[in-house]
Amino acid sequence: MNLDSSRPAPPYFLFATGIENSYPTIHNGTVRVDEMEVCGHYLHWQKDFDLVEELGIRFLRYGPPIHKTWLGAGKYDWSFADTTFGDLRRRDIVPIVDLCHFGVPDWIGNFQNPDFPNLFRQYARDFAVRFPWAQLYTPVNEMFITATFSAAYGWWNEQLSNDTAFVNALKHIVKANVLAMQSILEVRPDALFVQSESSEYFHASNPEAIHPAEILNARRFLSLDLNYGRRVESEMYEFLLDNGMTREEYHFFLGNRLKQHCIMGNDYYITNEHRVSPDGSTQASGEVFGYDEITRQYYSRYRLPVMHTETNIQEGPTGDEAVYWLWKEWANVLRLRNDGIPIVGFTWYSLTDQIDWDVALREKNGTVNPLGLYDLNRKIRPVGEAYKQLISDWKEVLPTQSVCLRMHISFPSEYRSEADTQSREEASDRARNATLEPVSSGGDS
To answer: Which Pfam families match (predicted)?
Structure first.
């Protein structure tokens, strides 16, 4: 295979997909939901990587299953990661390494564990040491959603439903993300971090709901405010301190600002907008503002390069619902880009259909959700054909109009270790010395 033939021209626009690797626990931590298992990736990982290449995609949101890989403090089973990441490197596909996706190993327990951040820092560093050619990372996926579903809604992991549990989970999750970034940068100083986070908006259903909607619209920013070292709004500061965060913990985030290494990844689904009632309860509103408007709100707050890191919609009865949603999301991306917002990538998530996301993974029903570019028999869906064509049409156009020229991303084949560099320098020295040495003839004494 000619690896250069399908590689986009620099500066790269990150057309991506992902392998669904959610693994929260339910039923009070006694049952593990493993999307890689139920979607067949453990059996069909080679075929899945073939499909990524078939689509013309060079960037893949992908990570090892944390509960099968991280067996204890400093203890690992790297066998599956070695095999799969080795194959990605051979194919010259750039992984956006997803280290923690909605769950932790059984031996950690859940996100209420205060030891999690420091333990995760070591896990992230050990991964980076083992796979130093990996440059792009999402250390903790959707930090706000992880904390909300685990400790506010009571759906996953600790399955708690109160503000103190939410703040506990949030501060541990975001601190783990920050410490992981620090430890990865020690190994790979040019690492870039894509914060895949759900972009939310809360609409007041009537005048009495304005204040609770304002509170929820401030709360949605908490994970990224802390992660990027931005001072939170006064009402949110009181909320954090009233529910267990100390001033020292708060100042940790202000004092460990790694924003300069980050791409703001934001996810948008038709479920991301909500109607708020006067009592603060919410229900789905469907698409009201859309990706364009909500992304502008996040960008105006953080002023970072943007990547659309997740979207999908079910293929419905006519078969073209997902195709139309893809077109609409892409039109939103182009609108943002044409208005000068540095949007650097787009993702349809995920590569294949998923299981039980219709109930947010709260039950193991085995229900297939037709959300993928391919079905679970690895047969391409109409949206897969449409995405393949979209990439083919736009991959040569966007780099020439890049608004983020300084974001250097290297492919796995371009990685050179210090040993490789030293070896090349020694070889160069030998070659230079050889040309300088006098050539003796057989007749000289």
So the answer is: Glyco_hydro_1
R_g of the chain, CA atoms, integer Å: 23
Cβ(239)–Cβ(219) under 8 Å?
A: yes
Structural domain contains residue 444: no
Domain count, the chain: 1
The residues facing 70 across adjacent strands are 76
- The model's pLDDT over 37-86, given as tens digits with 9 standing for 90+, comes to 999 999 999 999 999 999 999 999 999 999 999 999 999 999 999 999 99
Tell how far CA 138 is from the center of its chain.
4
Structure tokens at 204: 């007041």
Residue (of 135, 23, 38, 26) closest to 69 by Cα position: 23
Q: Which of 300, 298, 301, 320 is nearest to 309 (CA)?
A: 298
CATH of the domain at 333: 3.20.20.80
Mean pLDDT, to the nearest integer, of 375-394?
A: 98
Q: How far is CA 79 from the centre of its chain?
A: 23
Helices (H), 233-320: 234-242, 247-255, 290-302
Tokens of 31: 């049952």
The residue range of the domain holding 34 is 14-434
Question: Model's pTM, two decimal places?
Answer: 0.92
